[in-house]
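Comment thread on ticket #2218

A.B. wrote:
> Attaching the input chain for the structure job we discussed in standup.
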Amino acid sequence: MDIQAIDPVAAYRQAVNPFRADVIEARNWPTLFADARGEFVTDAEGRRYLDMIAENGAATLGHRHPRVVQALCRTIESGSPFIVPLGLSSAAGPLAVRLCDLAGPGLERVYFCTAGSEAVENAMKFAVAATGRTGFAAFGQGFHGFTPGPLPLAGHDYWRLPLAGTGWDPQGYHRVPFQDLAALEAVLATGEIAALLVESVQGLGGARPWDPEALRAAAELCRAHGTLLIADEILTGIGRTGQWFAFQHAGIQPDLVTVSKGLSGGIVPVAAVLMSEAVHRSVYSSPGRAYIHNSTFEGHLLGMVAGLTVLDVIQDEDVLARVQRTGELLRGRIEELVDEGIGIRAVRGRGLLLAVDIEGLSEPQAADGANACVDLLQQQGVLLETAAHAQTWLRLSPPLTLSEESVGVFTKALRDSARKLTSQR
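C.D. wrote:
> Ran it. Output below, let me know if you need it in another format.
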């Protein structure tokens, strides 16, 4: 088959998802991209865009970071097996040790998989095995994955629409109002909750951060009631908030941690579940149970190499300090726009996971202002999205290597877009 002879948009419409193509066409967004490097992507017509989405934070170091690309190319050319039939993955152990060291005491074992939803689903399985309980709790406006395990905990009914009316009715799942410790304690007091899932900064909730003291109190409640704490770091992990893991801002010690996007370098699917020795032993308790939970692509070589290289770059180039500096600069520039009174109402988040609240057009709390702002920014060469569970908020998850110059480009485009919207209110 000559792939060059196939119209990629027509083929996508035919065999993948025509409705997604309809949405992109209706919004006049770029359909195809021809190049991606660093903070920028270039569409098929040659127009360059500042990428403030970074594939929902997965392009941790920007697109096609040269050290990650070189490491993967060397691995491909080396002749080493990408997956092994019976032996051990040569790079899984080194990456697991590095992750446990970075996460801190109490996290001693790692299970590798390939995607964030899969990591959360696996963490939930381990939690059931460790506690003998089957209930779960999470916080409103949060999100933990599309698969059947975490789906009931999603902070918006939209994600459950495909299963509405089918009789699918998981029991023992509780969505607690954000930071409502009294409501959390009432749920945990039932004695049925295997684990509480927490995003230290809610991504789809519009970069909504936990107060560190409140998060510490939630962790204490879990301990008091025999409930495990799962820190969902799929979006926030590996430096996005200025620490290796977002839970470290509060100084808590989770029983399990899920990681994915940050490890991938935006190139290779990879995910991990970090856990305590006790949780691990609840599943892998003897040689007879060594294969009781596994996956074909568990510890696949390209994913492990990508993860190790990303960690090397972050350490070698002091990226965590850069995230802190750039995040403070970006937040400060947006706060200046808030003070201008042009419909930019607030900014929140941590590090380089931020969100900007935009006043509505039809009425103040309507999402149409934020949606129009996304389109105006795209016209000015900046790509971002609204937060799915807080739709008046623009969600920013740029590469951790975002430059000060690009901060200026973004904030100028945001100011210009907001000023255009003021005339429509």
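A.B. wrote:
> Thanks. Noting for the ticket: The chain has two domains: 67-316, 318-389+418-422.
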